[in-house]
Amino acid sequence: MQSLPVFLRLHGRAVILTGKGEAAEAKRRLLERAGAHVVGEAEEAALAIVSDGDEAAVARLRARGILVNATDRPDLCDFTLPAIVDRDPVLIAIGTGGASAGLAKALRQRIEALLPARLGTLATALHDARGAIRARWPDAAARRRAIDAGLAAGCVIDPLSDKAADAVPDWLAQGADAQADRLERIRLLSADPDDLTLRAARLLGEADRLYHMPDVPAAILDRARADAVRIAANRPPDQPGAGLSLWLEIAP
Question: Which of 21, 37, 121, 128 has the most CB atoms around its CB within 10 Å?
Fold first, then answer.
């Protein structure tokens, strides 16, 4: 990973935009949609977009300590602009590091077709229910596991269901807890993360901790949650701990 994806709150903040033509207008529309205050090069700002890729403008702005995006010039960019799937407040950003805007667009279109129009409504409903969720599951780890269980495919608040937003009260009323503490064993087909089965990929995204043979590569461990504990070992643990633990090994 050569870039760190971040979401910047630009509402009411100045962003410099230089250049003219349709490329500049497209960037202006995007910035204004995010609530930014678009200004010229002479103004003060922390970010700038050089819509015509002018190297001299990039150099001037960088000399002022401003982070710059230069359209169609990834070699000059401090940051890139992703393709965006907007289900406000849910945003999905797809970037290629400037390698191919066309690829990012194609992926955005595929993802757009998968996600319900009311996905943002589900996010808002979960936000509004935070107090009730904390009351139902006071322990943070238990709360996270319960939410994971509710959001799982085919479950009460499955985010790919159009009915999920309306089902939040029912989910809370049912009070269904996540599965009991358990250890799942995964025998990997290879060291290539592209060979992960759907089950393995799902469990990696849910696990609280990963116990793994030392030869399991980082590329596979990186498919797990960032806050999941990684523990190298030569055999499965006798007492794996609370929540969902995985034992990973590569098949001989």
Answer: 121
Is the peptide bond between 89 and the residue preceding it cis, with omega within 30 degrees of 0? yes
CA-based radius of gyration for the chain: 22
Q: What are phi and psi of 110, to 5 degrees?
A: -65, -45
Closest to 81 measured CA to CA, from 11, 10, 184, 159: 10
Contact predicate 205/224, CB 8 Å: yes
CA-CA distance, 125 to 166, in Å (whole number)? 8
Could you write out the DSSP letters of every residue in the chain?
Answer: --S-------TT-EEEEE--SHHHHHHHHHHHHTT-EEE-TTS--SEEEETT--HHHHHHHHHTT-EEEETT-GGG-SS---EEEEETTEEEEE--TTS-HHHHHHHHHHHHHHS-TTHHHHHHHHHHTHHHHHHH--SHHHHHHHHHHHHSTTSTT-TTSTTTGGGHHHHHHHTPPPPPSEEEEEEES-S-GGG--HHHHHHHHH-SEEEE-TTS-HHHHTTS-TTSEEEE-SS--SS--SSEEEEEEE--
**Which residues of the chain have a pLDDT value below 50?**
none
CA distance 88 to 114: 16
Strand partners, 249: 187
Give the residue from 23, 10, 184, 215 showing the smallest Cα distance to 101: 23
For residue 223, count CB atoms less than 10 angstroms from its CB and return exposed for 0-12, middle for 13-18, buried for 19 or more. middle
- Ordered by where they begin, the domains of the chain are 14-114 (3.40.50), 119-174 (no CATH), 182-250 (no CATH)
